[in-house]
Amino acid sequence: MPDLYAVIGNPIHHSKSPIIHMEFARQTHQDIQYNAILAPLEGFAATVSAFQQKGGKGLNVTLPFKQEAYTLSIRLTDRANAAQAVNTLKFDQNHPILGDNTDGAGLIRDIEVNQEIPIAGKSILLMGAGGAARGVILPLLERKPRLLAIANRTQTKAQLLQAQFSSHGQIVSGHFQDFSGESFDIIINATSASLQDKLPPLPTGLFKETTLAYDMMYSRNLTPFLIFAQQQGAHHLADGIGMLVEQAAESFYVWRGIRPETRKIIEMLKNNR
Ligand SMILES: NC(=O)c1ccc[n+]([C@@H]2O[C@H](COP(=O)([O-])OP(=O)(O)OC[C@H]3O[C@@H](n4cnc5c(N)ncnc54)[C@H](OP(=O)(O)O)[C@@H]3O)[C@@H](O)[C@H]2O)c1
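Above: query sequence and NAP SMILES. Below: predicted holo structure tokens.
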């Protein structure tokens, strides 16, 4: 019998996680089955419990359940604790539920290994202060950037993140317009504006020719943010498909202790958008 894994969310039909994990399993000769589970909005904990009863070994958690998964976890990794959100659950007969968050590790690996941009010494503008932004702040600061600026529509949320993480590195926060007149080496869109086909209210002049413009969202066409970055002169554009695959690889490692190769599946997903 293969070991059971799944991704759980609502909606879930769009998820690429089953394709990614079954490819990892094929490549690393692991005997697993990985499905997608639609949980009712009010039934996350019951759905997780039923999966566990069936002998399930682990879950990836996606929108809108990452906070609930955090609350449900009995043990948390440091990075899940900092993120206050969980995207990976591990079940083990001898240990209580472990909650982890692999989003930040996925982003870092995509930027440093796939995009070949070292983060140390760089200035970074992180746009957004929701779950995705929170999850990547500590991993970004651990790579020792020169500065991390957090811009959010609701400024108080960015200020709270600045206060929470300021002991880990040089952080400033504000509204988008507060960064007018500055330019950055890496600009990351962790808002959900691209999901609504909108551009965050960015001032002009933030991009240099060498700036990496990174949108955590991925889509068939360039997002409004990436189009804007290109118009502003940035040459290096990336969307979140690499982060998606890399966070999955990190979850696979947490569950199976083996790190799969990611380049081929990233290329395959890029070519089949
Ligand atoms: N590639 C991956 O593996 C991966 C992983 C995780 C997340 N993501 C992506 O990351 C994005 C954010 O997800 P999340 O979970 O952080 O969402 P979230 O918790 O709902 O947070 C949404 C954030 O976007 C901001 N926002 C929403 N609409 C905006 C607009 N029109 N203009 C400016 N700011 C706007 C919100 O600002 P306010 O605080 O002012 O409301 C908030 O900061 C999504 O696109 C998601 O698909 C990708």
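The pocket of NAP is lined by residues 103, 106, 128-133, 152-154, 157, 190-196, 198, 200, 216-217, 240, 243-244, 247 (CB under 6 Å).
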